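Record RNA methyltransferase, 442 aa.
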Amino acid sequence: MTAHPPEQHASDLRDVTITYLGAQGDGAAVLADGQTLHIPYTLPGERVEAERTASGKWIAKEILTASPDRTEPPCPLFGTCGGCTLQHMDRAALLVWKTDRVMAALKKAGFSDLPQPQAFQVPPHSRRRADLAVRRNGKDILLGLHARGSTESVDLTTCPVLHPAIMDCLPALRQTLRSLEGLYRAGDLRINLLESGLDILLVTDGPLSTVDRARLAALSAEQNIPRICWQRQGEQGLPETAAQTRSVQHTLAGFTVSPPTGAFFQATAESESLIQQAVLDALPKLNKRDIVIELYAGCGTLSFPLATRARVLAYEGYQPAATALKNAAGGTRLEVACRDLNRQPIMAKELAQAGCVVLDPPHAGAKLQMAQLTLGKPRNVIYVSCNPAALTKDAAALHAAGYRLNSVTVIDQFLWSTEVEAVCSFKHESSRRSRTGLSHSG
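=>
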């Protein structure tokens, strides 16, 4: 049985057994001398003939004994395209591995009495966000993801992850991009599939000409794309609207938001609902005067569901997203403030008065905001994580501050990748706080 992808640059061979998967999804084999070999596209329990290539990296020349969790990858681009690293692993086993990653991160943070986690996985062909590289290749356009460990792009001709609405539009996008005078050599294409349709942000290495704008307008009309925005590589500031045929809208928990281009939303509609429900299930019983403070609110994925249960003070650092949230919040118990929490965190005194603090920080974690959170010691904290390493760091701070772990929900919304989402709730038993009204200072 030959592993995927094959390479033929042997300078060393080893017969090894894979003991675990590393954080990047590579199988790890620990040798007798303590050395660890990281071998892509292998699984725990497999016996592998490993080959060291001329570059010094190890690959699986042959799978001698296959894991029962090994399966046939569903995509012909697997091993070339860098978008997925674990398509050779059964999906049920993949969910178990991701759940174990989250629980290991919490254990590493100091929590020993771990609750039984709930775990969910989204279906294939459901991802509604795509960040694609654009490259000129002679007369053709390559539109896709980077090859693994490379800056080279792989043309995305098929994908079992992306929503069909995105894939169906790629041929027309390639055709238009091929003709753009403002695309010299390279660019990027960021696509959000919203309720109103595709929302596209195009980044190019040259300025758009008048003819380019006409071509984008024609693409928008022909493909029923509500909005195409554009920005030149390296330029700061907001993108400009190159073509728009109708309003851009997205519904969150029954409220309609008009988001800015490139706005962050959860990767799939299914995971959005699962995360919202997990947060609501973790919400403690609140009295009429209790206030929920939400940090890193975005366009309101969690804000609107939370506002059905309590008064919410939502903080978001990106002004266009905060404005979109504020414009949609009329008639709700939702108050919105724009504030860069990495530079100007909400202070401990204010956090201490909250009935619950809900935060969905960036990939790197909550940073300075976590210090104020652990000083304020609000009784309840619900933390939404997309990075087990950042979860370990931030949860360790909560553990040191006297919190206990109440519940864990794991959502595999990044199918066949190593990424995993988790919703964790924490409670501080000894916290004493004022239950008087609270108003934000931002």
